[in-house]
Amino acid sequence: MAIPAQERGRVSTPQDASTTPRPRGRGRRPADEVRADVLATVGQLMLTEGIAELTFERVARLAGVSKTTLYKWWPSRGALALDGYFHAVENTLAFDDTVDVREDLRHQLHSFADVMTTPGGRALLQLIGESQTDHDLASAYRALYSSGRRELAYQRLRHAQRDGQIRDEVDVRVLVDQLWGAVYHRLLIRDEPVTPAFLDALVDNLFDGIAPR
Amino acid sequence: MAIPAQERGRVSTPQDASTTPRPRGRGRRPADEVRADVLATVGQLMLTEGIAELTFERVARLAGVSKTTLYKWWPSRGALALDGYFHAVENTLAFDDTVDVREDLRHQLHSFADVMTTPGGRALLQLIGESQTDHDLASAYRALYSSGRRELAYQRLRHAQRDGQIRDEVDVRVLVDQLWGAVYHRLLIRDEPVTPAFLDALVDNLFDGIAPR
């Protein structure tokens, strides 16, 4: 059985024996493992609690790293929250890649709408809100969350285009705004609800077209 | 020639002569005229300056009304700003109603994107941002801006549906999110720019459909 990522870094290495042992071997964990631990901790906090109680202090304690390390990697609480959240939802929001892109998109949109009702999803809306007046947060939002999500959607849509399910002349970047962007619109300005029928209509309108045939 | 709305209320009425004259006859203006004056003042400030310097104090002075009156009608600065902005952009964002709904929508979307680059448009994004954590502002946003804009779009789209330019089974409410909502998405999360080609593609994707024909 594989050693869980959280534990792996704590196994003593030969060097540990000859030097002053560090508590729980912290300083010896490779940076990428420490980073993965922090992201897992933050992601879990975001999904279950949102951002209100997410502080560098608490993350440092829970992930067993120093605050200095956290500040070195993430310039702000928002950046830390967004990076953790991106990784926490990566599997939930992964695209199916079957022969039916419409069904794959529909399925992903339903998962997306579900995750947006979690404390993490609500925190995301709050960060979009704050980023309207906080330029650093807006940059962090793009760099650590939205551009990555866009890229994953582009990949799936371009694959559908290569498969002949979306016409060649369509700019798939626009589809991201007409699918997920439309959902964000209803979440950020709550005139109309996000329902399963709404999500299905987003896909149907684009693939079938709305003009008489 | 008609008397401008701002002046009309200041013309003396017979009662004025027999009572202590009020400065510039303020107290005598019918409420709907005072209200229209205030909205015009606020709308102008929003379009040219945005919301940063928009205070009850300043609006009261510029529109020649008491702060008490303003507070009676608008519970917050955000509500006042949104009501003024709605009226300020009403003509610019009015829909054409020709035989070609695609062209009418395209034209309106270009006007909308233009107005969103003004200080007023940027203030709108800021208010959407603040409304993520301010429930009263979110209610004011819906009541005084977005639900009214939605209704005007629904009217134009339903007309197109009656004319047979949009299929009967299409829920036109979803189209609002796939047209203007998609633009808001690019304005609120600035991964991709709002270009003329983007605006045209929004309409084309929906009317032509994106699947091979």
TrEMBL record, chains A, B:
Query: Keywords in UniProt for this one?
Result: DNA-binding, Transcription, Transcription regulation
Segments forming domain HTH tetR-type: 32-92
Locate the DNA-binding region by residue range: 55-74
Q: Does the keyword Transcription regulation apply?
A: yes
Listed PANTHER family: HTH-TYPE TRANSCRIPTIONAL REGULATOR RUTR, TETR-FAMILY TRANSCRIPTIONAL REGULATOR
> Any idea what this protein is called?
TetR family transcriptional regulator
Give start-end ranges for the coiled-coil region(s).
none
Tell me one Pfam family matched here.
TetR_N
According to the record, the residues making up region (Disordered) are 1-32
